[in-house]
Amino acid sequence: MPESTDCVTATEPREAGGAAPGPDPDLSLVRRAQAGDTDAFGELVERNRKAVFRAAVAALGSTTDADDVAQEAFVLAYRKLASFRGEAAFRTWLLAITWRKALDRRKSVGRWLRLTVSQADHDSAATNWIEHMPADRRSQEEDLAAQQLQQAIRRLIRTLPRKLRDALLLAGSGEYSYSQIGFILGVPVGTVKWRVSEARRVLKEKMAAVGHHYDG
Amino acid sequence: MTDRQLSDRRLDEAIDRAVREMMNVEPRTDLRARVLAELGGPPARVSLWPRLAFAALTLAAAVTVLTIVQRPSDHPDAPQVASSLPAPIPSPQPAPGPTNPPIGGITSPPRMGSGSPSVSPGSSRPDPPPSNRRIGVQDRPIQAASIDTLAAPAVEGAESVERLRPIDPIGIDSLNPLGISTPDIVITPITVEQIDITPLPPRR
Fold first, then answer.
1. In this predicted structure, what is the pLDDT of residue A78?
2. How far is B61 from chain A, CA to nearest CA, in Å?
3. Which range is most confident: A2-6, A39-43, A85-89, B78-82?
4. B180 Cβ under 8 Å from any chain A Cβ
5. B18 interfaces chain A, CB cutoff of 8 Å
6. Which CATH number applies to A140-216?
7. Residue contact A108–B27, C-beta within 8 A
8. Which end of chain A is more exposed for a tag (fewer CB within 10 A), N or C?
9. What sign does the CA torsion over B36, B38, B39, B45 have?
10. Which residue in B139, B45, B146 sits closest to B95, CA to CA?
11. Do the chains contact at A200 and B15, CB–CB below 8 Å?
């Protein structure tokens, strides 16, 4: 299948800190941290915590698990800091560590059990969140339709194959560049773009199957 | 176009919005403090699941091995089958009766095959018996254990208790199953008759 990169409405992630060559804004802090400066590493945590946390959320779908994984990833990165040579940007290297940690967590039996038990609570919480959304200028009927559509899309995103879902969430977050995503997932940039496009196509098919038609 | 019919573009926008909302999450504010606290503390906590699973498998394997190993010792009277040993050979003369002196007035019947020579697995095998030998059958009568006397219990007032009557020995006629005989095997050489092969005519 040819690669499709016609994601006209896809968010183009920013390139800062990507795997592409360029000055690494974290490099000086990394050197200080490698010399044993924990305050410098604390600054690195502060700079990258959101990117690390969101990558974990993309892999796990749970903020609780993602919080644990983010902490574990930072600690592991500190312990492996001596092996960081600077071939990639520090953020990219850190995100790769985070992704591996998140995949380990995703495969764990304990997490599967917790998700199975708490699925009903999660669904009810999502419903409550929708009910408490503030109303904007649109009519209540339009709001309700938009909310139902968003809810349906989120539900269908969870049913996507993992490879497609991971690429779609990472790219759609606007937090990472395609080259970073390729480095994290261990695939070429073209594969990342194809997966995002394929995820959209599958999502539209699924939405059509549940009654949300569109003009193709 | 109805309300539920969306253009492809609008659907893409809806997907973008949904993904952004799913990913628009913030980490806890104390992440930096927790990371720095753990850097100076003990090594990161490792999940106990793999260790527990390994321990459970090891325990199950150990229990299985112990059960298999201890099974023969749980039944010491069970007959032990040794396929490499020859079948018991009947002694030429019948056993004269109990060979062990009575202990405490209790006599035990002779054990079957007690007169057979013991063969250790490492020793050389005896010559094979004749083909009409009988396997595993004893001609002796089997006698149950008998109690001749019972020691008087050293209990006060035991005189008033009537002494138990000796138990008559129980005789069991010996079994007389049909003897198993194996016919002699004669090996005759195979004779092959000479075959004459005539050559085929050559092909054109």
1. 94
2. 22
3. A39-43
4. no
5. yes
6. 1.10.10.10
7. no
8. N
9. negative
10. B139
11. yes
Contact A172 B15 (CB under 8 A): yes
A207: closest CA of chain B, how far (Å): 9
Q: Which among A46, A78, A172 has CB closest to B20?
A: A172
Residue-wise pLDDT for A200-214, tens only, equals: 999 999 888 877 655
Q: Tell me B102's DSSP state.
A: P
Least Cα separation, residue B34 to chain A (angstroms):
7
> What is the residue extent of each domain of chain A?
23-120, 140-216
> Which chain A positions have a beta carbon within 8 Å of B28's beta carbon?
67
The residues pairing with B106 across neighbouring beta strands, listed in sequence order, are B103, B147
B122 DSSP 8-state letter: T
Q: Return the amino acid letter for B3.
A: D
Within this chain, domains A23-120 and A140-216 share the same CATH topology: no
Taking the domains of chain B in order of start, what are their residue ranges? 7-42
Please state, in angstroms and rounded to a whole number, the distance separating the CA atoms of residues B101 and A137: 113
Rounded to whole angstroms, the Cα distance separating B98 from B111 reads 9
Would you state the pLDDT for residue B109?
A: 44
* In the predicted structure, residue A8 carries a pLDDT above the cut 90: no
User: In this predicted structure, what is the pLDDT of residue A132?
Assistant: 41
